[in-house]
Amino acid sequence: MAKRPLGLSKSNKAKRAKRDQDKAGAGTSNVSSANNSKEGTPQLTLEVEEGEDPEDELVQLRAMWKRYFHEERQSEPLLNGVINECNGLLIKSDQDGTELDTEYLAIFAFALVESIYTEDGYHPEMHELFERALEVLDRGFKQNPKDKLLGLTYANLCFTRIITEYMSQLKPDSNESEKQWAIETLLKDAMSKFSIYNEDMKMTYAVLTELNTLLELVGHFNSSNAVAEDGLDSDVEEDVEDLDEGEEEDDDKIGSIAETHPLYPLRLRSRDHFEWGREQLVELYKALPTDDDIKFKREVATMIGELYLKKAAAPTRKFLRLRYDNDEEEEETDTAMCQEAQQGAIKAIASALEYLRDAQDPDSTDSWVAVAEAYIDLGNVCDNESCEQDNAYGEAEKLLRKANIAAHGKYDEVLSKFVQDQQAE
Amino acid sequence: MSAYKRNNDSSEVSHIEDGPATKLLAMEEDKMKSLFNQKIWDPKFQNDLEETISKSEPYNWGSITELVDDDLLRSVRKEIESEIHFTLKETDIYKVNQSGDLANLSGLDWADLSRLPNMYKLRQILYSEPYRKFIAKITNSKYLSGSKMDMSVNTYTKGCHLLTHDDVIGSRRVSFILYLPEPDRKWKEHYGGGLRLFPSVANNIPYTDPCAKLVPQFNQIAFFKVKPGYSFHDVEEVKVDKHRLSIQGWYHIPQEGEEGYIPGEEEAWVNNNNSTLSQLEFNLLQEFEYPKDERKLVVKEPSQEEQLTKLAEDLTKLSSEEIKDLNKYIDEEHLTKEGLQVLQKNFLENSSLSIENFLNKETSELLLKLIKYRELNEICPMTVEENKKPWETAKPPHKWRFLYLDENEFNEESQNERAELDSKLYDLSQFLQSFVFKKFIATITCLVPLTQSVIVRRFRPGNDFTLADKLQLNKNFDNLMECILEGTLSLSAFDDWEGGNVGGYQIYMLNEEDNGDDQAVVHDDNGESVLINKSASWNSFNLVLRDENVLEFIKYVSWGAKGSRWDIKMLWDVKDTGDDDEE
């Protein structure tokens, strides 16, 4: 006859009592204590690629790294496991006088850099960790200066180092020229050593995301305009307008930091850097296998689309200013510039649309709205009341309406404002 | 604890409740009056407002814009920002950032005053005699206590909310909320965070949807007379990344020594309110509750009970024909001998069981497609008026709110007119009510289900929840266990439920009523009162043998969720077949 089941609270009480009893008993004999400690050791089961030797140390390390990087990137114990494993192997190879595989060295260095981001912020010994990672990478570059994974790891180290070790120390009035040079050099070195590592596209993407974070931080340094978390919130724009009171935002203008500020050169050339990052992402996207993880492909395509929209921002502003705020006297000289800006904006937005459409997920209204936003941007730079403008706005409205139904009215405000604007025109 | 009367106010934990008036610093009346907008001292303004409030719907309430001196309130806001630490707290009824330090404000000493001087000043004027008399006049509330001060500071950030309640606790006579969102910015309606007021269909039964809403602005005060069984209101979820800061407070019945003090008045008021807790009234209120908590006797024949008992004692007794029938809906991996053994073992060990990939692939894929289609292409009805048959709205909203499939709407004639999703859900519900499914339940739980209730539910984002409720044991039949077997088949599409940020999770927790706090706190300090916390998910089936000491609720589904939580809730009264060895 089966055991009688207890009610949930009684069952829980019984389990707690048993657990307490076990705990109390654990200290009374060495044997049980030893057994408990053995049972308590977390066992990690790793999957290795087909045909690989599960006993091979590099195979094991690669599996552990992949598990950490692709599945449990928040797991500190797993990351520490990788670092400890690497450390042990490095000591052993030094003792044996053997050469270690560059893949292993790259994983070690990457893991050291990963450990700089902690739950509470940055690791207090980050300088030492960066230096240690550099030593490991140098060792690898000596073996193979053109190793792609080492190059990628080096680029990641530089991007992270600028953010954590340099930018976190900077104030709006900082003016150390040494730091300016160091930051510029790090970025330049990173870009020159970076290359797409086809064996692990997600890792490559993570490094390019780190660059994007860096460039966004540079752009917003000493800026009161917070980055909107929610995407399409009509009020973000309004709030910015309220704050600026009509002052035009222009990324050609570097108003808020001095020329002597360590970030000045980065901000000055941020458009080029964004462009460089975007080009790498496009290359990565093209190289993705057709049967690759669709979620990942959409993520990459979204980022490329957003970067194209960023590219379109400056010519869009220029076009709108020249077309709608122009003095009559300057009209003639500006016509060509206006057209050029318009063409530039349309081209960039068209590219953005291409990727954002690719990134559309039938289950994600946010992805539909991203396309709608791009259509609105496109309509804004088309000739007023032209067929192209009508088409663009029409597509945007169609998508917004569809998204609004699916998102239980989330875009009500945005949609009604958009429709009102259309009617006002 | 009753489902209808709870000490469910979010501010109960941290509030200022000061003692004798002698502690107050003296402030000259003129000076004090000058810190208010002068319009409130104008008799015409007062009379007009009094009339407006007396005619207001759904009950006596009102608001005043630009209430106090702008500089003072800005200074209060700065003090709050710099001196008060907020902690996010989440229970079945709310999610709100509560002030930690402010509770210590009672028994202020000079050191504390130096930390929050403007807050102190604000409290002083809000409880001053002229202002209390003004509030008493416009709300027609007789006298209000100046010594029993009761205030708290809360900030509602994105996702925060407070569900429907009537504010009736102790000697409260008037409730007020002074709003301090960011000054110089209009708080817009689509930010959420509105104060919504509910009409009542009967005493202590609020209507499902609110009929009035206040969109709060900086330096605006809203207030209402606390009316037991009628003053139902909620705080709409904040939908954007903004802080809706507010000071919440209450005016109480005059205390001994104060003007208007009537010996025994407070006790009579409290006793009268407590009497609404009585079982008699509770039973009356159940008339207004939908869907009805009815577990019908379905295993009526002794031979049926015998069959179930045999299965509960020996899982090999499930015939191949029965397994074939079960496999029409349930995935075959759970129907093999080994599969059944694993499920039974887990259930007997834990008194609960979670089965992933419960429905078979064909059923699961079809339902997923249909549910996604409805979510993405059809407008989700958010009010009773918008809702269409065969769906009904669960009520009253101080117990629960969700849509449920009314199975009475299904008959042979109507079957062809129903949307495919509704028909498929109905069919699935019928399967879950079938005798063969009860055989499956008996097999994996070693219990004999005798009664049943099966409800298909949809919890809409920004709208729906169930509050923690005690188990209502079935007293109609003999020999039942003092437990209920509960099953929940979660059919929630989309993937944003994990982590609980958008709510919709199901909690089973110990009822810690005896500690005097009957709120179901999700994140307690020792983490031991929550027994099961199960996120909404696709195609997972949870079974729990719930005893009287266990509360259960579905957390309010945030407006930010990608879609609704869909599930089918099953209840069975059960008979025990096991041996007596409870260890």
Automatic annotation (TrEMBL), chain A:
GO CC annotations on file: nucleus
Key words of the record: Nucleus, Transcription, Transcription regulation, Translation regulation
Subcellular location(s) of the protein: Nucleus
Chain intervals for the UniProt region annotation (Disordered): 1-53, 230-251
Residues passing through the membrane, by range: none
Single GO biological process annotation from the record: positive regulation of SREBP signaling pathway
Polar residues bias locations: 27-44
InterPro entries documented for this protein: Nro1/ETT1
Superkingdom per UniProt: Eukaryota
Family: Belongs to the ETT1 family.
Protein's name in the database: Enhancer of translation termination 1
Species whose genome carries this gene: Maudiozyma barnettii
From TrEMBL, chain B:
Protein's name in the database: uS12 prolyl 3,4-dihydroxylase
Subcellular location: Nucleus
Stated family: Belongs to the TPA1 family.
Cofactor: L-ascorbate
Gene Ontology MF terms: iron ion binding; L-ascorbic acid binding; peptidyl-proline dioxygenase activity
Domain Fe2OG dioxygenase: 147-253
UniProt keywords, alphabetically: Dioxygenase, Iron, Metal-binding, Nucleus, Oxidoreductase, Vitamin C
Gene Ontology biological process terms in this record: positive regulation of catabolic process; positive regulation of macromolecule metabolic process; regulation of translational termination
Entry-linked InterPro entries: Oxoglu/Fe-dep_dioxygenase_dom (IPR005123), Oxoglutarate/Fe-dep_Oase_C (IPR019601), Pro_4_hyd_alph (IPR006620), TPA1/Ofd1_C (IPR043044), TPA1/OFD1_N (IPR039558), uS12_prolyl_hydroxylase (IPR051842)
Main localisation: nucleus
Catalyzed reactions per annotation: [ribosomal protein uS12]-L-proline + 2-oxoglutarate + O2 = [ribosomal protein uS12]-(3S)-3-hydroxy-L-proline + succinate + CO2; [ribosomal protein uS12]-(3S)-3-hydroxy-L-proline + 2-oxoglutarate + O2 = [ribosomal protein uS12]-(3S)-3,4-dihydroxy-L-proline + succinate + CO2
GO cellular component, one term: cytoplasm
Stored PROSITE patterns: FE2OG_OXY
